[in-house]
Amino acid sequence: ISMLRRVDAYLEEYQAQKSGMKETFPDLSFAKSTSIDSIGVDERLFEKPQLPTLNKAALEKILRERSLQMRDQQQAWQESEEGRRMLEFRSSLPAYKEKEEILSTILRNQVVIISGQTGCGKTTQLPQFILERETESLCGAVCNIICTQPRRISAISVSERVAFERGEKLGESMPSLSPTFCSSKVGYKVRLEGMKGRDTRLLFCTTGILLRRLIADRKLKDVTHIIVDEIHERGMNEDFLLIVLKDLLPRRPELKLILMSATLEAELFSSYFNGAAIIKIPGFTHLVRTHFLEDILEISGYGLTPDNQIDDYGQERIWKMNNQGPRKRKSQITSLVEDALREADFKNYSPQTRESLSCWNPDCIGFNFIEYILCHICEDERPGAVLVFMIGWDDISALKEKLLLHPVLGDQSRVLLLTCHGSMANSEQRLIFEEPEDGVRKIVLATNIAETSITINDVVFVLDCGKAKESSYDALNNTPCLLPTWISKVSAQQRRGRAGRVQAGECYHLYPRCVYDAFAEYQLPEILRTPLQSLCLQIKSLKLGPISEFLSRALQSPEILAVQNAIEYLKIIGAFDNNENLTLLGHYLTMLPMEPKLGKMLILGAIFNCLDPILTITAGLSVRDPFLTPLDKKDVAEAAKAQFSHDYSDHLALVRAYDGWKDAEIDLAGQEYCWTNFLSVQSMKAIDALRMEFLSLLKDIGIVDSNATNCNAWSYDVHLIRAVICYGLYPGVCSIVHKEKSFSLKTMEDGKVHLHSNSVNARESKIPYPWLVFNEKIKVNSVFLRDSTAVSDSVVLLFGGNMSKDGDGQLKMLGGYLEFLMKPAVAEMFQSIRRKLDDFIQSKL
Ligand code: CDP
Ligand code: MG
What we know:
Layout: H1 2-19, H2 29-33, H3 56-79, H4 81-92, H5 94-97, H6 99-108, E1 111-116, H7 122-137, E2 145-149, H8 152-165, E3 186-190, E4 193-195, E5 202-206, H9 207-216, E6 225-228, H10 236-248, E7 256-261, H11 266-272, E8 277-281, E9 288-291, H12 293-300, H13 306-309, H14 312-324, H15 332-343, H16 351-359, H17 367-380, E10 385-389, H18 393-404, E11 415-420, H19 426-431, E12 441-446, H20 449-452, E13 459-464, E14 467-474, E15 479-486, H21 489-497, E16 505-509, H22 513-518, H23 533-541, H24 547-551, H25 560-572, H26 584-590, H27 596-607, H28 611-622, H29 634-642, H30 650-666, H31 670-677, H32 681-700, H33 718-729, E17 733-738, E18 743-747, E19 751-755, E20 771-774, E21 777-779, E22 783-785, E23 788-791, H34 793-799, H35 807-814, H36 818-822, H37 824-844
Parallel strand pairs: 1-7, 1-8, 2-5, 2-6, 3-5, 6-7, 9-16, 10-12, 10-13, 11-12, 13-16, 19-22
Antiparallel strand pairs: 3-4, 14-15, 17-18, 17-20, 18-19, 20-23, 21-22
The protein binds cytidine-5'-diphosphate and magnesium ion (MG).
């Protein structure tokens, strides 16, 4: 810190001299004497964790006994009443009827593609068929099946279900061994969590976990079957895995690959694997009555007005959209929707319905309207669970809050209100599968996760808002976005199908039919619409050769420009060297399953012993903005936020708000604290959970001592935290051009940029720093920066890009300092400090 201060003083002096036209340079000697060791780091943080040792003979003995016990247990289960009933259920599933066909096709072919409607038994039955057959026919020889799931929640819930169907208990652990040992043949492994042991023959894991396993075990030595589930989603990880597996198959002729999909795109995958065998499981669903918006309005007489579509939350949303742009940004699909609406013909509908339709706001999900329909179902409709498809976790929690206040829907003796999204806890997850008591209506608010990967058995009514959060990426502007977008026709059909699983059902689409007609047939694969930085890191850590060449072998290859941008970025942040090889830092980043910038920030936070606030910041950057700004209380909300912001930093404002909440929680006043300070309770809780998760990840890779419980050994030295933030967010940096009473912002690539009006810096008329580092920029008509932190020259020069290596990018970025750095003596000074800093960081990795 003292070094930074001295460098800043030096720069100020230099600027002063430059304007005064003095030709001498200030004293450089301090650069040689500054010792980075003096920053003082707790050495104990860097000791590697010790693995517990096991007594081998004892282990073998217990295992032998255990396997005998397990065989008896299976037999007993199959003969029991429950076991018989389970087998009956399983054999009623459409997949069961294809069992022999499936097994013999797998026997004859290396690659098999299986498609069938959601709920027909692909995920739960197929792996079991293989497991049962292999253990029968191999007489004890080892089969080893890995089934990948796109999300951790489905990996966990499916493995639990399969263990249950086999009469086994997942995670029945034997305390004498390691706590993760389990006796079931079925196990799971997701990030930071797992249940698997020597007996595990069928492992459900996230696709990411299998990719990571490939790093250590390139040929997947002991694996006999790989099942890639939900390939129709075309997630980036799945597309990536398919390239790797396609290369691996000729080298592992006995390895079987099975791809499973809920939609009928089988031919695409079959031709990718040179005409692989296809099996289609015939499906069956009950009739689902479909109501589009106009039908609901017509029957119910509900009148949509601009006002009743906009509740508190809706207002906030719209307001945000207006300020941030998605509404102004006319994506192709938005204009298609608008055209569709303009040309739609509603003449067979009543005047009131037509009037209502003209008030319908495609950008707004009417919470009041949803509440109205739910209330109608609860009061007037037959029994059956309700599944509501919302956009994302933020509007799910906002809707839940609203519904809980409703006299009928909030009455827990009548309604069981649950949520289903990717980040929910396991305990919460189990509840959604359970049947409620008689007379209680189950309502599940879900993201598109419930579209295909999670099956809730008793659903009879579906509400579909027509949207999902989709990550997208604009390669030309190198700008990522995560925006609510209209879903595809296939998704809408999937959502509708969820209502007809047990009996005839009803589906309410909360948009007009003409809008549905304008939807795209399929969603664009993720690899074509997201930034590729993490993917490029993975390609390198798996040593898969030159990145562009590797990606050209994908099912659908991403744009060349998108690949180049990603590689360039990784060079700038120091994860790649100039030859596209992983640096030591890059190597660590590949082990952290998060955006590289967050990983980088965390690593430096640990090294500089200020991990606590950095955990909050990185977690905060991963969840919904916790600062709420309801339109009608905008001033009060802004004033509340202003209390936290005396550092010209949104990131530090968040740290202060979070710490305040943590303190309030001790007195059980967390909720009240959030209310008075306009903070979202859910976001605070999510940050709390993520902080723990990030900390365990850092312990896993050995950056933080595995026994460390206290990472609070820091004082609020904002100077240091600014440096760490900059280290992570670089090259997200813009220069502040000061004018007399205001300032404007500039980046090299975009020219003039603007601050998002929620930023604490947007309310300042002067910022006493020359630079802002930012997390994200969003291109609307002009470019807007979201959360930002003001930083000094020294911070950018020393914690920004890699000066000595990629001179070109660096000099360009530094704009005004170009001439300054060209002076050999000055450049040398900075490089010397920079080198020391780099060496110091390297020595801690
Ligand atoms: O993968 P797919 O969509 O084809 O179906 P699945 O997930 O294997 O589910 C097959 C059936 O098992 C579903 O129709 C549900 O009836 C049942 N199931 C369940 O009762 N509980 C679970 N946690 C998962 C599935
Ligand atoms: Mg499935």
